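REVIEWER CHECKLIST
Item 1: Sequence provided? yes
Item 2: Single chain? yes
Item 3: Sequence as submitted:
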Amino acid sequence: MRCLMNIPYVDLAEQHTSIKDELLNAVAKVLDHGKFILGEEVAEFEERFAQLCGVQYAVGLNSGTDALILALRALGIGSGDEVITAANSFVSSASCIVCAGAKPIFVDVGEDYLMDPALIEKTITSKTKALLPVHWTGRPGDMEAIKTIAKKYKLAVIEDCAQAVNAEYQGQKVGSFGDAGCFSLHPLKTLNACGDGGVLTTNRHDLYEKILTLRDNGFYRRNECVSWSNNSRLDTIQAAMLLVKLNYLEKWTEQRRKNARFYQQHLKDISGIQLPPEEKDMRAVYHTLIIQADRRDELQAFLTEQGIGTKVHYAVPIHLQPVAKELGYKVGSLPVTERQAARVLSLPVSQSLQPEMLEYVVNAIREFYKK
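Item 4: Structure as written out by the authors:
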């Protein structure tokens, strides 16, 4: 009988162990200078993040969801407009559109989990104002095809990069292709704040200026409010800790990619599962390592019994959520998305996993399918 191991899906406490002193020192500096709102650490983080993504501007925000909402608002998208996106993502990819006053229109995904560019044009109407591709699981979408369609129909492009910090398509970082790139810094992301956080990237100065105003309750300067808006500032303490983590991002990214390769190498001969492909023109960062599995629920239960934490991202696609009923979609509207939702399972892939942990997961999956 196998000696059981405890392998959580994610272990944030373990991730922070080796850099805890650095994080505490960064927080202490903020406590000492007392500039808790838009302190210099925020500006430094924005500059370094813009450099990371190869763009001119980055704006620190309080969440990836707000980044999406403010991007839509800054682009003038609202009531009566439509925005095309995917339905296999977290609900924020669509709720941001509704919160901006517009209507989400869903297209199906391909076998790579990403919005299928071949299906986009048939959903474009006179009301369509933007495309919102999702770089889901840390896999970059086909931005060449998406940008070509956007140019043809004069549509804005807003990249949902929530799960894809440091990912690349054809050697170019995500967040640099569209009018705006929107990133989440949630604790579960690959570059993660110790709380909520987000950032928006752009090469458009006009958009940059609008986002700076919109994130600060609509104030252009201290005594001059020019837009109805909300508070969406990135806290200085979070920016200070993110600056520490930026120093480790590349190392962590490569370790996650190495872990993903281990799974791909050691599970490829199991007929009951389908592994995510990685094309030559992309660099996925594996925010999640998602397989498709026969008898998914049984496999998940078995792995739980073995002490292995897993997740399902996501069991119910956005278009079939109760809140989306008014949009008119039904079972069968997006067949690939729905088929994948019944089969996807996220395995542990964190950079803190040890080789013996990965081997344990692989052996457990093999044991399940041998039965």
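Item 5: Key structural point noted by reviewer: The CA atoms of residues 60 and 202 lie 12 Å apart.
Item 6: Recommendation: ____
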